[in-house]
Amino acid sequence: MQLCQNFKNALLEYKLHLEMQLGKSRNTVASYLGDITQFALFLQSKKIEDFADASQNEISEWVSRISPGAKTTTQTRKLSAIKSFGGFLIEEKIWKADFSELIARPRVRRAIPSVLSREEVLKLIAEPSRQTLQETRDRAMLELMYCSGLRVSELCNVKISDFDFQTRIIRVCGKGDKVRLVPIGERAVGAINSYVDFSRDIFIKLRPVYLFITNRGGKLSRKTFWYNIKKYARRAGIEREVKPHMLRHSFATHLLGAGANLMAIKEMLGHSDLSTTQIYTKVADSALVAEHAAKHPRGKMRIQFEK
Question: Is 300 considered catalytic here?
């Protein structure tokens, strides 16, 4: 179903509002626009073709339709989008009252992140070993992601100018365009140097802005990296599904297990709230229980940590 022109115009203005006035990140803008587009399509199915004609009833019905089967985090994001859009409509005098404020947010229960074991990480990183642009690049990306805990979007957006090889520090532009400085390990630096040396002719000829590039010099997409990491996981014999974000979770969990300070991990991950980082303590607790069950002579004991 195509959006009517009224909705298209409103969404264009809302996009500019998010980008120019609120300074939202590209990913947030895309997510919010996708959610509001769904809401607009729902309104059209109800024969409503102007946001001015929508009311609390339509918002409540839309929320009740998306709730079954949707993750709590997805519901929360969609409600954040509709609340943000409600504020925009009030500002533009399209709505006289912000109906979205009357909708209760679901309580978010954070799922324990899936992580790779140290052995699985080593097997995964070792897989791209062929002397090609793709595999030297992917090896460098895997090393960097695991040693610095970058998000996939941050990894793909790394620019050549973001590196300081002398101090082994990388400048990362994260969510909300917040900038942080993250140390990178010797192995990651070595893998990046190998990739750059192998690709030197391409870098000299094309002069790319971004570090991780395609054969044509364009920035590598998140989708391509996702596909590649699944390919290497299969080659490494890792039977469960491996997603890029698992390397970020593994970075935090393995650091915590080695005794790293939680506040330091928070800063390296770019979390704005310590409670977001604290979820990794539950992962460490789960790993401790599994280790006890496997290795302790009384391993059949059932230990449960208080939630």
Answer: no
- Residues 124, 246: one domain? yes
* Same domain as 132, residue 92: no
Tell me the residue range of the domain where 147 lies: 118-254
Per the annotation, the verdict on 292 as an active-site residue is no
Q: Do 48 and 122 fall within a single domain?
A: no
Q: By the 8 A CB rule, do 232 and 177 touch?
A: no
Evaluate whether residue 305 is within a structural domain: no
Q: What is the CA radius of gyration of the chain?
A: 23
DSSP, collapsed to helix, strand or coil, labels residue 260 as coil
Q: Are residues 130 and 225 in the same domain?
A: yes
Mean pLDDT of 94-100: 73
Contacts 24+ apart (CB under 8 A), 77-84: 77/31, 77/35, 78/35, 78/38, 79/103, 79/105, 79/106, 80/32, 81/31, 81/32, 81/35, 81/36, 82/35, 82/36, 82/39, 84/18, 84/22, 84/32
Number of domains in the chain: 2
For the beta sheet containing 179-183, the strands, ordered from the edge strand earlier in sequence to the opposite edge, are 163-164, 169-173, 179-183
- Choose one of 254, 276, 292: the last residue of a domain: 254
Catalytic one among 151, 249, 254, 266?
151
Q: Mark whether 32 is an active-site residue.
A: no
Q: Which of 137, 139, 248, 254 is catalytic?
A: 248
296 is catalytic: no
Q: Which is catalytic among the residues 159, 171, 175, 231?
A: 175
Mean of per-residue pLDDT scores for the chain: 83
249 given a catalytic annotation: no
Instruction: Output the DSSP codes for 99-114.
Output: GGGGSPPPPP-PPPPP
Q: Tell me what pLDDT residue 65 has.
A: 81
Question: pLDDT of 141-151, one tens digit each?
Answer: 999 999 999 98
Q: Do the domain assignments include residue 64?
A: yes
> Is residue 146 flagged as an active site residue?
no
